[in-house]
Amino acid sequence: MKFWQKIFLGTLIIFIAAFDAGVYILTTYAYDFNRQRETENGIREQSVIVSSVTGRIANAETIYYDASTNKERLAAILQPLSDYYEPQGVLLGLFDGDTEICSDIGNFDKRLLELNSTQTKNTMDSLSDDRRYVFVASQIPEYPHLTFVYARDISRIDAFRKDISRIFLALNIVVIVFMGVSIYLLLRYMTRPIKELNKVTTEIAGGAYEKRAALNRTDEFGSLERNFNLMADSVEKNMEQLKNAAEERQQFIDDLTHEMKTPMTSILGYAEYLQNAKSTCEDREIALANLYDAALRLGNLSEKLTEIAYLRGEKLEMQSVNVNELFDTLSNMTRPVLENRQLTLETHADVAEIKGDETLLISMLTNLVENAARASKALSTIKVSAFMRKTPVIEVKDFGCGIEYSQIQKIVSPFYRVDKSRSRKFGGVGLGLSIVSQIAALHGAELEIDSEPGVGTTVRIIFAAL
Predict the structure, then answer these.
(1) End of a domain among 128, 162, 196?
(2) Is 180 contained in some domain?
């Protein structure tokens, strides 16, 4: 069952219950009020008739001394009154104790005749011969042995109650139909935003991540719309990130396959050549040298990939690192590469210490210097410096070939190389700046790259505040 249907049925049931309860209470109150009023009217009218009966008995006693005890005379006294009141729905009865003297009242509860004094009046209403009567009984004060019973037909209030009940039943049906239609239309209108949100949710679930809700409301649904759209923005952003990550992963795999293909082809080719070819010692030396270069390239690739895998799971314990000692270690580690390419490394530190992992910092700077060496011409200089610019900064600057602005954002991607022929010539595998980027991220640092073709490249690692 849908949400709006539950609200519809629940509201309708509650309304019907409340309406019927109200009708029942109202009709019951009106009925009880009318019964009470008829009882009060009966008491007053019974008192008037008792006075009349008392006067008639007193008059009869002036003629007949036994008028108050003689049954026939008492019946004769009461009969004219009975004939007068009967058309008005009033029945009269006269009793001596429990003994009926004269009465046109049918069956009634004899407890009505149990009176303790002349000041007492017993009242009740009950059914007699399928009609409802209000009964009033009291002793005649001047003749306490006589009990006068008054009965008024009040069946009309029962008939009124039935008529009212039928009217309310018909009204109940009309109101239920009216309320049902009204509530249905109101709920369909009020829950329309839910339907629209559900539609947008279905479209987003189907892959249309750009879809957004457009309710243009200022109530709770408007707040829900804004939160929903924020959630959709987050989902779209995360899906875009996942898509980019998947594309980068696939590109990484494709590049890795390509990178391994060349040295593996060389290794297999030269190995087969050494096995089958009738070659000279000089040819074998050339083949072995090429085998060594290809194997070395595979080793470098494996080493870089291992380093990247290590960085992804690394959690750093930041320590104070002496910058001068860091630069000394960097100079020692890069000296063979720089001497082989006739390059000079200059270091300068205006910052005494930085926070970080010394091993990873050495790896990062080594990669930057090696990249700078590949881009530099012989006899040129590579400068590494540390200085303060709100926060500590380490800068590696070369005066090599430089790169285009459009390629700056790409060079931190794994296996990306601006000049593939130069990288292969110098043994690069395109992972250096990717490693640098990840190490910088682990240190909470930003990587800033400035480059101009023919002028050189400057890479800055901007650390967080000390």
Answers:
(1) 162
(2) no
The predicted-structure confidence for 83-102, as pLDDT tens digits, reads as follows 999 999 999 999 998 889 99
- Show which of 162, 192, 222 is a domain's final residue: 162
CA–CA gap between residue 457 and residue 375 (Å, rounded)? 9
Model confidence pTM above 0.70: no
The CATH number given to whatever domain includes residue 370 is: 3.30.565.10
When pLDDT is cut at 50, 70 and 90, the band that residue 388 belongs to is: very high
Question: Residue 65 belongs to what domain range?
Answer: 3-162
- Kindly state the percentage of the chain with pLDDT values over 70: 83
Beta bridge partners of 151: 91, 135
Whole-number pLDDT of residue 311: 56
